[in-house]
Amino acid sequence: PMFDTLRQDLRHGTRMLAKNPGFAVTAVLSIAIGVGANAAMFSVADGLILRPLPVPDASGLMEVSGTTPTGEVRNNGISYPDYIDLRDRARSFDALSAHRDLVASFDRRRDEPAQGKYGLAVSGNFFDVLRVRPALGRTFVPDEDRVPGRDAVVVLAYDTWTEQFASDPAILGQQIRLTGVPFTVVGVAPEGFNGPDIYVPAGYYVPLAMLPTIVSARADVLDNRDTRVLRVLGRLKPEVTLPQGRQEVERIARSLQQEHPTTNTRHGLLLRTERNARFSEFAPMRALGLMLIGLALAVLLVACANVAGLLASRAPVRAREIALRLAIGGSRARVVRQLITETALTAFAGGIVGLFVGYGIIRSFQQFQIATDVGVRLTYELDRRALLVGLVVAGISALLSSAVPAWRSARATDLSNTLRNTTTSGARVARLWGRHGLVASQIALTMVLLTVALSFYRAFQAEYGRGPGFRADHILLTNLDPGLARYDQVRSDAFYRLLTERVATIPRVTSVAVTSFVPLSQDFQDRASIVPEGFVLPPGTADLTVAAARVDERYFDTIGIPIVDGRAFQKTDTAESPRVAIVSRGMAERFWPGDNPIGKRIRLTGTNAFWAEIIGIAADAKFRLFTPNATPFLYLPRLQNPTMRAALVVRTDAESEAVAAPVRAAILETDREVPILSMRTMEAFYHANTRNLNTVTVRTVAGMGTMGLVLALIGLYSLTAYAVSRRTREIGIRMAVGALPGSVLRMILGQSTLPSIAGVVFGVMASVAAGGVTQRLFPGTAGDLVTYLLIVPVVVVVVMMAGYIPARRAAHIDPLIALRQE
Q1: Rounded CA separation 408/413 (Å)
Q2: Tell me: the pLDDT tens digits for 648-688?
Q3: Cβ–Cβ < 8 Å for 758, 441
Q4: Rounded CA gap, 436 and 442, in Å?
Q5: d(Cα 553, Cα 569) in Å, to the nearest integer?
Q6: Which residues contact 277 (CB under 8 A, 6 or more apart)?
Q7: DSSP assignment, residue 470?
Q8: CA-CA distances (angstroms) from residue 404 to 299, 308, 400?
Q9: pLDDT digits (tens, 9 = 90+) for 199-215
Q10: pLDDT at site 418
Q11: Once rounded to an integer, what is the mean pLDDT over residues 768-774?
Q12: Other Cβ atoms closer than 10 A to 555
């Protein structure tokens, strides 16, 4: 009987929707927009931050992070000796694994040009802790992670195996070369597993014990407690809670501080879930993803209000039908179920159409990729999780939009008046206010969406107007790392010296420089821990961390960052000369406000601490996404602070691409075993890391606002058109007794103007609150007076037009035809 009843409800609901195609199409499109927006934005947020690791029981993964004395997480770094002590002493975990990322030269034969490839050095239990089983061969055994440099074995990522080895099953036992060292392939990781980083897929995995062999410049990488480069993951025992595990980790950290005061006094440990650690580490991505989901939910609410308004408008038309059902013995519950079933059919159809809408939105996001050397991969797709979200959203929209109208329709008590097609004035007023409230809420939410979109657009345009603070044209960037070819620092310095001399002789090249960090780079971000002379540090803080770069004497001229006071670096700033530094203008104002820092000193802390005298102030430039140009930045001379990984910055008086081939040839001529990690123009690099993201963000938010505006217009138009259809006879009588078309037009417009004005007023107030939220997440995106002066008139004019069209139709009603209507 239950299935028979359901079948009857579905059949009747389908007939009712077929009899009212205008209502059905409008409702389906409204729900489709809401479902599509939410499915797409969930997919984007999922790709940015929400997606769990593709491992069994990902929610059970824990991460142990390093902290400062104030409890701030410090780059998630733990040293190898600290990891060994933690692993052996902790009793709360089933197991603890460790890994660190690395980029190594990757090739199969010595005569092949080397390529830089991102991978992971992992502990022997890494795959067991993550519960990952190989697609081919085996993973590591514990014994392969005990003797440094002994077991040169490698597990290939599935994508590496398919793309570079054509899925050859005979790859097991063959050798590849990492930094020129032969490694034997023992296994292939499973498809879909790209390591514990959702952004950067690993191409291969090697034992941690092989780190000194691969990273030859740091032979003490496994012995030095100050080398904090490991990320530690584990799983708690079933009977251990997170607070209990956290207490044990903190207790072990305190014991390590007492046992090793020289290296561990200022370092603690923190246990968090892997997901919480990721949310904290990638806060901007989290903020962007959550903002997009919030805007999509606002669109859904507008869509639900639209459908609810349409249902409320139809309520008087169906009142006689419902009253008749109740009069002949039908139950109110059955009537409510029938009405909800009709809306569920609409929601189902809207959900199907909405998935196509979501797919179209996702395609626009697939163009957004960040330019990096390690191959950051942001994936947006309507997978099973997104489809489930779309299904849930469709169900929620059906419930939200139909529950109240269905309940109100079924609770009629005066069946006699309803069957006589009469309605009390109080009921008419209540329905009118209800529909007006829905339209006002739609307009208010639309105001929020449009205001946020315009605020983001104006903030980004203002950012572009100020410029990045450096040259983005006629510059070629090439990232190199001689350490991947097993260079030491002396050979590396000689390599860069010879390479810059060769590149400088290339026709159309006007300047060549070397830097450890390129502005807006998302890969290896250079930092320095400092103590500024004369600056009072916050209580409990031993030093401060700022962004930094190690540059040569030609860098500022090459990249176009002017020195506004003092001098630039010179060839004489060598390891034998006094230590010097240059600070950005923002750093000078941050630590020495109202004072000239030239001649003052900063102390760089760490293993090789030293004092450096400030000799110059550089103009501000933009170095990070979502940060202002005036972010404090420190420059150090490369000759005093050498580094092997660096970027070659080549300035030309021609198109940047024109010198790419000669620069590549110069690198191969200098040493073909030094891999070219990347080569791109600064203009392409700048656009990929700023304009692409900003453009997609603005388009998406603006698209949400447009969806909301379209839905609000549909709602207002439907409300006014329905009011006209219900009052056709009344309007005919008015015009028959002398009412002019103009007065009828004003009367109908007056009814649609009230919810419009209320919606605009409440929308402005809600937009101000939303602007405060976006300002905290993304500085500079709060709406201002100009934003509201642009948005409010547009919304008012558009919604007035939506009411004007049916009002004008009402003003031209023929009284004779109207009076003949029953």
Answers
A1: 10
A2: 999 999 888 889 999 999 998 898 888 888 888 888 888 77
A3: no
A4: 10
A5: 5
A6: 63, 65, 73, 76
A7: S
A8: 20, 8, 8
A9: 788 999 999 999 888 87
A10: 46
A11: 78
A12: 24
